[in-house]
From TrEMBL:
Domain Beta-lactamase-related: 33-332
UniProt organism field: Chitinophaga ginsengisegetis
Cleavable signal peptide: none
Residues passing through the membrane, by range: none
Descriptive protein name: CubicO group peptidase, beta-lactamase class C family
InterPro entries: AmpC-like, Beta-lactam-related, Beta-lactam/transpept-like
Gene3D superfamilies for this protein: DD-peptidase/beta-lactamase superfamily
SUPFAM superfamilies assigned: beta-lactamase/transpeptidase-like
Length: 355
């Protein structure tokens, strides 16, 4: 009986072990310094993790190893949460993505021509504050959302609204400010109450270097002479464009919540994952908070993040319900390519099993 059980189950076990070994090999091509900062990766299918890996250190000074439960800064993956928060407010009838931003920020230059949709899709033409030379003058200051908007709002536009797609952090700062104006709550509290708490993301936070955060992964830069602690910034500067932190497990809860319409109905959810068009009718590959691309000819939804000391990447393939996420606690190592390679590898394995 035991023998027949072994014979029946061993091919699947071998296949799983083979896939794990292949993923391990991909990760270790870049994340190969067990005594330095490293990365955490997860693969999930049908809403459940099927692979998890942590390599390197969560804290170099304390010599603590990374684990899949460590909390990382997300960087621009924050934009997913900001976009969904806007759609939640639209579903409640409190705003419309077609609204001009002048409806909420009355003194914004040319605000009657720039819509919330333009902000969501990076087609507003507003100057990206991260490209401004004067950014260093505020990087460590506590800035209110109004102050942040004031920092860039009088800069000349790069192009007319809807003319071009150009990735833009300023637009997502404006969206966070609009969330506060419309909801009457801080962005931090809104995300905590209506997303993190509702979904059960108990290890997700608005970034803080002061708060005691259990299982925090510390961020690093790499210099010619070795690793150094990340540059300190005020998280009120990236704000709703890049100031959230989470774990791979919580991010899977987030993905599952979107799939199960825990936060938005199907109609509103679809808006986040629709490819839109420029004024000239040309389609571009960005929805609301996600890049909409393809892996091996299969549509996916993806976004990365980069902030001092951290880089992140997540890919979701809706047709196969596959979610792959990678997080690094050194901005010297980007998980972007590896995450894509893992997703392609998992697709290949899935297709082999279906044959």
């Amino acid at each position: 009986m035991l023998l027949s059980l072994i014979i029946c189950t061993s091919p699947g076990i071998v296949a799983a072990q083979s896939l794990d070994a292949k993923i391990d090999s991909l990760i270790l091509t870049l994340f190969n310094d067990k005594d330095g900062p490293g990365g955490v990766f997860m693969v999930a299918q049908n809403g459940k993790a099927i692979y998890q890996k942590a390599v390197g250190k969560a804290n170099l000074e304390s010599d603590v190893n990374l684990t899949p439960e460590n909390v990382f800064q997300l960087g621009s993956m924050t934009k997913q949460f900001t976009a969904i928060a806007i759609l939640m407010l639209e579903e409640q009838g409190k705003l419309n993505v077609k609204d001009p931003i002048s409806k909420y920020i009355t003194d914004y230059p040319a605000g009657n021509k720039i819509t919330i949709h333009h902000l969501l899709t990076h087609t507003s033409g507003i100057k990206d504050f991260t490209s401004m030379k004067s950014l260093s003058t505020i990087a460590q200051k506590d800035m209110s959302p109004e102050m942040m908007v004031g920092f860039f709002k009088n800069e000349p536009a790069d192009f007319a609204p809807g003319e071009k797609f150009e990735y833009n952090n300023s637009g997502y700062v404006l969206l966070g400010y609009i969330i506060e104006l419309v909801s009457g709550e801080t962005y931090k509290d809104f995300i905590q109450k209506y997303i993190f708490d509702k979904v059960g993301m108990s290890q997700s936070y608005y970034c803080s270097d002061k708060q005691v955060i259990p299982k925090r992964a510390y961020g690093y830069h790499k210099k010619a002479y070795g690793y150094v602690n990340k540059t300190m910034i005020s998280f009120s500067v990236p704000f709703s464009s890049g100031s959230l932190m989470s774990t791979t497990g919580d991010m899977l809860k987030w993905q599952n919540a979107l799939n199960q319409h825990q936060l938005l109905n199907a109609e509103e959810t679809k808006k986040a994952f629709t490819r839109y068009k420029l004024n000239n009718g040309e389609e571009f590959t960005y929805g609301y908070g996600w890049h909409l691309r393809e892996i091996k000819g299969i549509p996916d939804r993806e976004h990365g993040g980069s902030i001092f000391g951290f880089k992140t990447m997540a890919i979701y393939i809706p047709g196969e319900d596959i979610y792959v996420i990678g997080m690094s606690n050194c901005d010297c190592n980007s998980p972007t390519k590896i995450t894509g390679d893992i997703a392609a590898l998992v697709l290949d394995e899935l297709w082999k099993r279906k044959r």
